[in-house]
Amino acid sequence: MRHHFTWGEVFERTDQLADHQNWNELIQLYDALDAALADAPPDDRELRQCRARVARVAVFELPADRGADAVRILEREYEDGLAHSGALWETLAHVRVWEEVGPHLRHPLLRHLVAHARVLRGEDLAGADGLDPGACGGVPLALAPWEAEFWDAGDHPGSSGRSSGGAAIASLSSVGREGRTRLPAAGGGAVPVLAAPEPLVPGAPTYCFVGVSGPVACDVHQATARYLRALPAHERPSYATPIPFAAAYPDLVLALGGSSAYGTVASAALGRIALWRMLRRFAGLSVAAPAADVSAFVAGLTCLTWELSSDEIWFLHLAIGHGGTEGRGSVSWIVDGQDVD
Q1: Rounded CA gap, 65 and 261, in Å?
Q2: How far apart are the C-alpha atoms of 157 and 171, rounded to whole Å?
Q3: Short-list 31, 98, 86, CA closest to 58
Q4: What are the CA-CA distances from residue 294 to residues 34, 40, 297 (Å)?
Q5: Quick one: pLDDT band at residue 143, thresholds 50, 70, 90?
Q6: Close Cβ partners of 290 (under 8 Å, ≥ 6 residues apart)
Q7: 199: helix, coil or strand?
Q8: What SS3 class is residue 17?
């Protein structure tokens, strides 16, 4: 049977119900759309967009005492595997503290994703009942000091309920930073070896990361110069700017969380989990290694950032280096990419 819902009508009705705080009818509208989808063709995109719109507004605007309803709607979207559900759990975490939603979350993975999204909003959930740091690869349930140093807990995915816009894309800039350093000339000294580029986020070509290895004498500056050698001479920068890894943390979290130009699906929680996984890989640490070992590794990192004349609004150019120890050569990693309108 053909449903009678249209995008314009649902959009307007959703705003009217939310404006008048008519929560019961808003939830009834969501349930009616959900029931209609059960009988609709799989390719009924308009109906799915209608339900997603109601879900987003409901999760963002339902009052604190309706936390169970907000969780039920989130879990329904998550069960359907809809692409926007990542942004939706960020929305839930943005407007509700853990005690409002934690007891209602039934799905173990979704429960932990919401928890990590709350951690990124400054909530310390270390030791909270029903949460296991090992569930997401040993990522701690409280921000480490180096994570919190430059992170803005109020400006990332989920901060808007009626807009479907994604998070701001990474745009790590060297403008205004102190201490620019000249990169070594290409061809001199030890020659680093570049690994094959890998996508920073599987299936997303915007950003890639490249491992660079070499002898002890090859530091992050030489690794950066080696990587940039592939660029045309007129595009190749001569200078880079040293920054602490903590300053790159927000951009890495957003990039790893799936942010892109005009992107509508982004999850800071997934980005943080992926970043900790990446750091463990770089450091050669197992999932079981304590978080303090990862923090100690971060303390020894040296980072450089640079800009290209072709950069527009969204870009991320970052070299991450760790000096050699116990006779091992120094190793660096390049995270690089641009996105355009």
Answers
A1: 36
A2: 16
A3: 31
A4: 44, 49, 5
A5: very high
A6: none
A7: strand
A8: helix
